Amino acid sequence: MIRISPTATKAGHSRLCLIDSALVSQKASDSRKNERRREIHTFHDGDGDTLQRMLNALQPSSYIRPHRHIRPPKAEALLLIQGSLAFVAFKDDGDIEDTGLVLLDPKVGKFGVDYRAGTWHTFFALTPDTVIFEVKPGPYDAATDKEFAPWAPDESSDQGVVYLAGLDDRFRKHFQLPPRSWELKLVTRDKCKHL
């Protein structure tokens, strides 16, 4: 395992790499220590690969700003490995229909979601140590990979975690799930922190 950024590692295999409980546990542990509360582990050789494959380990309260992959158009698929995940698809104006809410959880027999290029989406962990396998076409170009939703707050903004809390609450209400386990705490007058 090679560390390639503060939030990502890369497999260093030459022929094959096993996705086993040790790797999944390591990435879940890494995500607990990461300030963003998530970690990626890539399997592809580099940004130029035509098939991008990765593990994404997430903790509750990790906010991924809604986005879409449109320039160039890229479909994507997520497969749950452990935990429970909320997937949310949005209309162009940011509205959410009930059909855009997908619960991935082995307890309900739903393990993955495949979505077309240009779909506004986000996802978040409903339980600690949630890990998914993601796949989408490459190559990866940081400048064009994601188009962030103009109606959703920036990931680093004060309102990002507040927006996520609202999505989490709506999702849990829709699926009649227990209330979220994390709460917002005021740090300063203008900023909030998540637990």
Protein model, in words:
The protein has 195 residues and is α+β, with helices and mostly antiparallel strands. The protein has two helices and 14 strands. The protein has helices spanning 21-33, 160-174; strands at residues 2-5, 8-10, 38-42, 51-58, 67-68, 76-82, 85-90, 101-104, 112-115, 120-125, 130-137, 147-148, 184-186, 192-194. The strands form four sheets. A seven-stranded mixed β-sheet has the order 1-2-3-4-11-6-9. A three-stranded antiparallel β-sheet has the order 8-7-10, covered by helices on one side. It starts with a strand and ends with a strand. Mean pLDDT is 91; it is low at 186-195.
Strand order, sheet with most strands? 1-2-3-4-11-6-9
CATH superfamily: Jelly Rolls
- The coarse silhouette is globular
**Mean pLDDT reading:** 91
Overall radius of gyration: 16 Å
**Which consecutive residue ranges, at least 5 long each, have pLDDT under 50?**
186-195
Sheet-strand content, in percent, reads 25-35%
CATH architecture: Sandwich
- CATH fold name: Jelly Rolls
Determine and state the CATH class. Answer: Mainly Beta
Q: How many DSSP helices? A: 2
The class by helix and strand makeup works out as: alpha+beta
